[in-house]
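Dear support,

Our group has been running a series of protein-ligand predictions, and this particular one with gamma-amino-butanoic acid is the one our PI (initials K.S.) wants archived with full inputs and outputs. We had some confusion internally about which version of the output was final, so please treat the block below as the authoritative record. The input we submitted was:
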Amino acid sequence: MSPRSVKVNSWNGWDPLRHVMVGRADGTMVQAPEPAVRRDFPDDGFPLGAYGRIPDEMTAAANEQLDGFAALLEGRGIRVERPEPIDFSQRVGTPEWTHNSMFGCMPPRDVLITVGNEMLEATMSYRSRWFEYLCYRPVLQKLFEADPDARWEAAPKPRLTDASYNTGFWDTYNQLPLEEKLDRVRRNDLALTEAEPLFDAADIARCGKDLFVQLSLVTNRSGADWLRRHFPDHRVHPVSFTNTHPLHIDATWVPLRPGLVLHNGERPAEPELTEYFKVNDWEVLEAVQPESWHHEARLSFCSPWLSVNMLSLDENTLCIEEREVRLADQLTAYGFEMIPVPFRAAAPFGGGLHCATWDIEREGTLQDYFP
Ligand code: ABU
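Confirmed final output from the archive:
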């Protein structure tokens, strides 16, 4: 990394992309069960309680697509960093708990967020993801050394004792009637308690001065409140959607450029959020239905709405999973150049093109899009 040319800077998800991280699939695990998450893939060799490494052929296929995506970005003149995977099959712990596995490092978006010149490590809320930041530290260290103006912060490392979880949550939640589930989502009475601040970085959508923080299965009110206090010059909005399994805002509410936000209509937004955008002259565009490749993705915990999980190269150019032809057509009609990227194999490793990346530098300055 030549020091002079490195600059940590990004205020939103659409300014011209200059420098980015792309994750790696190596060694990713179906996680051991823990209070906040339980995997259950009976048809694919991992019934409830089972855990272990994702089969090698799936990992190789995902890495091929991740490497191809990295090469595509480099071919467009964008500098690409990669994380350093560690042994995710190891047992981990703190003085207060131990856990039988880690997860992986395909989705850096979950752990890291850039706000201006600040690189922030999220708390995370799964025990299996507590140490994931270690995979990103070599790059963070390099960036810190290369850019004298870069700020490097880590949100308070959470304790993640049983007090941080509604420990019986997954025993009952899926059996509740729909309305009861949605009521709990509205109250953010889900897997996490409010014992300490918890958030995943992928629950934050950046629009310059405004940060929209989804309350979810991995982000609590205290996490959103920590972000509000941490970014006193921003407007931090805790938001929730009509979605029984909220997990990361980037498959639900996706600002594409000033004045246009793409919305997953199966997860209606609170009227106040829609109103906030509309009174500021934003169009809320309902995304077309996703294509139906997702059922082929073995061991995936993501929804078909990874369709909208795209990476913007600038406010006119979007990388999209190659099979999402209907969405590509919809956005072409809105003036976007759509770049199809084969990426289905990456889904079981933690998401789509947006999840798999972390913005290090985008041109541009702090703007107020909601004056
Ligand atoms: N990590 C993004 C997954 C979001 C979703 O499946 O809806």
